[in-house]
Design a protein that fits this description.
By secondary structure, the protein is an all-alpha fold. The chain contains 7 helices and no strands.
Length: 188
């Protein structure tokens, strides 16, 4: 794989910015028609930042990678991480958004970021990173269900289903990376 030049970094930025603006237009338009959607300027800034950084991370990670399975694995991993962050900030996964137990999900993202750096984005290593993220996600669900302090209050079925959904996304992404490594995309 060729190193990323400054031109490669700048090239996708206008497209990512446009896509981010189009996505943010949905709640902006919805706010004009219903009181159910009530975003503040801060909400738009945070959402825009998350969307833009995720898009840029995808563009830079798949730069010069031809394997579609690897690209799909990256896309699914980033989508799952973005969605986990978004849900956690908006409404919280455990209880409400203000519940301190939701801070545990930072560990899932830390495993992903640290693991990706350690694996140097190679498919075989990334498969293990995504499976580790799934284990951390499942572990948080178990902690939330048996929490003796009561800080992880919430409905057990809701905790299981929500965390299970993210576990499935991380496992599926890990499986895609595993397939990409078997296809020889791991060293690119």
């Amino acid at each position: 794989m060729q190193p990323i030049s400054s031109a490669d970094i700048w090239r996708p930025i206008p497209w990512i910015a446009l896509l981010t603006a189009l996505i943010l237009a949905v709640p902006l338009v919805a706010m004009q028609f219903t009181a159910e959607v009530n975003w503040t300027a801060g909400d738009f800034i945070v959402a825009g930042g998350l969307l833009f950084v995720t898009g840029l991370a995808y563009a830079l990670t798949v730069h010069n990678r031809r394997d579609r399975i690897y690209r799909l694995g990256v896309g699914l991993a980033l989508f799952a991480a973005l969605l986990l962050t978004w849900v956690n900030l908006a409404v919280g996964v455990i209880g409400d958004a203000g519940n301190p137990a939701n801070r545990m999900y930072v560990a899932v993202l830390a495993v992903g970021i640290g693991g990706a750096i350690f694996a140097r984005l190679r498919a075989a290593g990334m498969s293990r990173v995504l499976w580790a993220m799934a284990i951390v996600q499942a572990s948080i669900a178990v902690i939330a269900l048996v929490d003796p302090l009561g800080e992880a209050s919430g409905r057990p079925l809701e905790i299981l289903l929500t965390n299970g959904f993210f576990v499935v996304l991380f496992v599926a992404s890990g499986w895609l990376f595993h397939r990409a490594a078997r296809n020889g995309a791991g060293s690119a």
